[in-house]
Amino acid sequence: MTPPAEFALPGREVFLPGAVPGRLDALVRRTSQHLVDVALAVGLGFLGGLLVGLAVIPLMNWGVVPPRAILWAPTITFLAVAFVSQILIDVWVPLRRGGVTPGMLVMGLRVEKVDGGEPSVWDYLIRMLLYSLDGVLLGLVAVVSIVVTKRRQRVGDLLARTVGVRVGRPTRVIGAGSPAGR
How far apart are CA 106 and CA 61, in angstroms? Predict the structure, then answer.
């Protein structure tokens, strides 16, 4: 994709959406996808904590629960709902929707096995559990592994033998001599 002439600067290359170089594009897409998924889980946790907090106020006024409940009940609910939501988003949703989380749907990504097959529930669990390792130093481990690896994989992807692929792009290499490659 060539940028319009008014955006071109002498000696500089301009990248429009969809024209970002491969490694940077993969990094931006994967990071954005993860942020969307985490924001969804945190939003659901916040909603759950808010609803419990609103339910605790009258119970506290009636003397059914101690006043401390206004602090710990919404907090525990927030943490529990956010945690369960993240598990559902990272494991159950892609298992049921062909390897696509809500964030992947937005960013045009899908999870596949390295050999092109469908990941199992254990593959999704491995990926999810290793988010904690990828998140070390504010995600630096994930950034480095995505930039350095040939298939742009996180540590969780490497151990689960999965890869994040763009939706709509072929996952196999088409040779120059094949009819599809001409």
Answer: 44
CA dihedral 98, 104, 105, 108 (to 10 degrees): -100
How open is the CA angle 110-153-175, to the nearest 5 degrees?
70
Q: Say if residues 109 and 166 touch (Cβ distance below 8 Å).
A: yes
pLDDT tens for each residue of 84-101: 999 999 999 999 999 999
Spatial contact of 132 and 16, defined as CB atoms under 8 Å apart:
no
The pair of structure tokens assigned to 56 is 């605790």
Radius of gyration, alpha carbons of the chain: 22
CA dihedral 52, 55, 59, 60 (to 10 degrees): 60
Beta strands in 30-108 (DSSP E): none
Helix axes 69-87, 22-61, angle to 10 degrees: 150
- pLDDT score at 179: 53
